[in-house]
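Lab channel / #folding
Pinned by the channel admin:
"Please post every new chain as: sequence first, then the structure tokens as a reply. Keep commentary short and put observations after the output so the thread stays searchable."

First post following the new format, from NK:
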Amino acid sequence: MQEKVHLTIKSDDTEEWLDTVWTRPIGYLWAVFFQRLNIHPNTVTILSMIIGAGSAYFFASGSYRIDGLHGLIFNIIGVLLLAWANFYDSADGQLARMTGKKTQLGRILDGAAGDVWYIFIYNALIVRMYLYHDMEFGWLGIENTERNTIIYVVTMYSFIVLDGLGCHAGQCALSDYYRQIHLLFLKGKAGSELDTYAQQKINYDSTPWKGNFIKKVFLFFYTKWTRSQERRTPQFQKLFSLLKSRYSSIENVPQSFRDEFRSQSLPMMKWTNILTFNTRAIALYVACLTDLPWLVLAFEIIVLSAILMHMHHTHEGFCKKLYEKLNNEVQQ
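Reply from TO:
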């Protein structure tokens, strides 16, 4: 079975240890199950969204300090549901590779699944802190009283927006982009799902609203997603443009250059894994099970943001050096 599971992963370079020993094997079993039922990978992704979003209700109601055993059980259910959603999130990609049913919509849905989970989970944390943890925010001068309810909720939402939009979304977007870049140099176009803003803008503009409403909405946000990725990586964009102008295709880039890029990019993969699901989910589990839900927000805003800045600085740095090296060779 281990060999079969290995055939369904993208690459050893981009796999996290916990995924290889836990998520992927269980995801593979689900993928086999869905394959036998002839269920499309996109359906599995949607099920993942529903289950992950459902976990939010249990995280919102899981204060064992107030509700005792009832709250603890709700926390555990929330953990199990989010883990289940993650198994499905793994299974959809494995199923797509097993069956050859890869679609762009599937790529977009897969990328959006985690965002859907956390939109609900972040709102659940607001509810939980409002109902059970107002005394922990006395230093803000906004204890949960009838007079201060609006101020309290607005302040908590400010933290959530800072974390969810300012940190979480940016961390996941850049991590996914670096992973797809690495796969492009490792395996070529066939092994990577790297998309460009220009391609997606054409795709969005050519897709009619009539009969494609859901796809059009997802394409709208995905186009903005790819644009933000490119805007945040100017040094890589310069390097990529130079490679395309000189070699026309990544497959024509000399293997020696691709190996050099891979050697520089490989250390980044551990950071991309930390910034995606497992570490973030473990932080959420610990924060909720210890009944200190605000800790996960602090972790994402402070620790994960620091990792993102280090990863971004390093990646842009070696891209700049490789660009200068290649540009000098071209001029000579």
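NK: The CA atoms of residues 30 and 91 lie 6 Å apart.
TO: also worth noting, The chain has 13 helices and no strands.
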